[in-house]
Amino acid sequence: MVELALRLRALSPKSRTPVLALLVSLLVLRSRVVDVPASVLAKLTESARRKKVTPEDVEDALQRVYVDEPDGSKTLLVPYGDKVNKINIKPTPPSVLSSSAKSFPLLSSSHRPTLSRSFLRQLAAILRIAFPSITCRESFILVLHSFFLILRTVLSVGVAKLDGRIVRDLVSANGKGFAKGLGLWFLLAIPSTYTNSMIRHLQSSLSLRMRTRLTRYTHDLYLSSFPYLRYYRVGLEGGLEGVDQYITADIAAFSDSLSTLYGNLIKPTTDLVLFTLSLSRSLGPSGTVLLFVNYYVTASILRAVTPAFGRLAEVERRLEGEFRAGVGRVGREAEEIAFYDGGKREHDILWRAYLRLIKHVNSIFKIRIAYEWTEDYVIKYLWSAAGYGLISIPVLMNRTRSLGVQAGPPQESDSDSPDDAVANRTENYISSRRLLLSLADAGGRLMYAYKDLLELSGLTTRLYTLLSTLHALPALPSISSSSDEITLEHVDVGVPPLNFAIADPDAAENMYDYDMTLGASINPPLVRDLTITLRTGEHLMITGSNGVGKTAIARVLAGLWAPQAGVVRRPDEVLVVPQRAYMVAGSLLDQIIYPHSYAQFARSGRTEEELMGILEAVHLAYLPAREGGWRTRKEWRDVLSGGEKQRMGMARVFYHRPKFAVLDECTSAVSSDVEGRMYEHAKSLGITLITISLRPSLIRYHTQLLTLPGDGTGRAVLTRVGTAEERMGIDREIINLESKLGEVENWQRRLEELNDQLGIQKH
Ligand SMILES: Nc1ncnc2c1ncn2[C@@H]1O[C@H](COP(=O)(O)OP(=O)(O)OP(=O)(O)O)[C@@H](O)[C@H]1O
Q1: Backbone phi and psi for residue 618, each to the nearest 5 degrees, phi listed first
Q2: If you measure from the C-alpha of residue 708 to the centroid of ligand 1, how many angstroms do you get, rounded to a whole number?
Q3: 561 alpha carbon to ligand 1 midpoint, in Å?
Q4: How many Å is the Cα radius of gyration of the chain?
Q5: pTM, 2 dp
Q6: Could you tell me which residue ranges the ABC transporter domain spans (predicted)?
Q7: Tens digits of per-residue pLDDT, 85-123?
Q8: Superfamily for 101-472?
């Protein structure tokens, strides 16, 4: 070290500086290499460790999907190549959801997307979700994006000036200046091109991040548990169709449109301001005034000819959604359609939906022709003509001034040769010309941005409609808890009302679409004044004709529908098995434990042997071997037969062992012998059954029978089924009656024969 210092001192001061700089840099680098290992090495070892992930680990990640964190967030495990990426996801806190609900009052059905204050309020409400705070990453990207957009404009002004200088030097045959200008030109090209690619990159990042924020918020809102259950109620109570289109395509289109528009709006606006400032210096006050007159005339013309792009965009998204829903329906119901050989019919339906869509898109294209023609004419030709006129002002004035100067007494500036005057005028012309061309370009882009802004208003209305409808669904009434019994007291059961916005008459003068109150259409009750008490061990069967409201009672019991009147009390452990068996995306194991996740299963300490026992009870023990093990992932909806799916539904009951299980015709496709054994098994596990069924043979497993006569009065008749012996008696009677009913045809035939004989005798 000392030797090094001595050698440095021996160097001349001029050559010492770069050596010192080099040494300092080396020291900084060295300190980084020495200091950083703790963090860098941790990362390196982490990635090295991640690289060693075995196929079993990947399999395990696929099965687990996510890990519950102590802070309530979840860490998603995403297998990617030979690694497992971990992504932490924090759910939107319920307090944030409820506080932002105030920003989403429902729009009236007559609302049309335009550039009004209503649009700004809708946009602001959505932006508060996309940019939750000033310090969030999205805000940072936005600031960086804005910086590069402004930098590009500043660089453009520099390029315009340099352009003028190069031509001036060329005209005045200044070789040195020309070469210098050219050198600067290449230097300026480096930040200019880098700025362009950064703008594109930041615009895409911003769009993606906004989409992620909005999708996460929408998911948290849409897939909410009780008491909101918005995913279930948004159609019936919210009256919103095709939510998939809103969540998948519309959010993406909104994010894209907004981030593109930001660039398309900020850049030409700054261009316009900076270029106008630059130009006004060479144009003088009168030229600047004329420039503004030009802007005003252009804006007025284009405003007059602009069609309602917002409304057009909104309709396009809706038709797009209808077409998408049609294609989705065919995919989902493929087998049913195939049984009917309904391909041709579905083809017609889909084609009609597609034609409606493209007819609309085509009409937009046609409308655009006239608009774009006017726009091009105004921006390219009117502005250029105005530009020539404006440029000529300083040039001509310069000339007059220089002529005037020649006539007067000699001055210092008169030493300028006529060549220099021409060179200066050329420089002025080239710079102004370039600025004007850029100005025309900025004006064109601003007009495009105006059209994009109108389209954004359509997308904003779509997204706002989704969020406001989800927010407007009120919480379902909480169900009073009871420990060991289900009680219904004077309960009226009916289809829930549709929530809709009704305009406040006092606000009719108001130009905005807000100040709405919620309205609700009331449906007549299906079942009236229902009073039952069901203790554990008392099994109830609900029967009655189709459409009388049997499942409606199950919906009220589950809390899906609010009772129109009366009180419902029940313990928490009630599981409803629906009529249509639902198979979740995942492994065979996931089917049994649904709605639990694999993580919950692993935590509960329950085993695969136990699951095998459950499958044996529902006579599906062959499934793991047949399908390739518990972790096999398939489209179970298609793989399992109707009866197998229903048995799987019962397997879930045996896995969760609730106090009460509501079985809504969930064994209708199961053979009678297996059905009986499953009922006995459920009872042996201490599960109290509420069965909705039309099969009289199931009565024997119940102690009470609720019959809905369906006579239009909405009354329900509750009868005791009796003791096991009485039930056996009823069974015997049922079998007796069923066999007698089977004989009716024979008796009928015999009666006809006898009548015929009598008739012959009469003749
Ligand atoms: N989402 C809904 N929107 C409108 N009406 C509905 C809705 N769900 C049910 N209903 C109506 O409520 C009535 C009762 O339906 P529910 O499903 O309870 O019948 P059910 O007695 O279970 O009949 P089934 O034996 O055929 O299953 C029916 O007339 C049905 O049309």
Answers
A1: -105, 15
A2: 13
A3: 12
A4: 39
A5: 0.76
A6: 511-736
A7: 888 888 888 888 888 888 999 887 777 777 788 899 999
A8: ABC transporter type 1, transmembrane domain (1.20.1560.10)
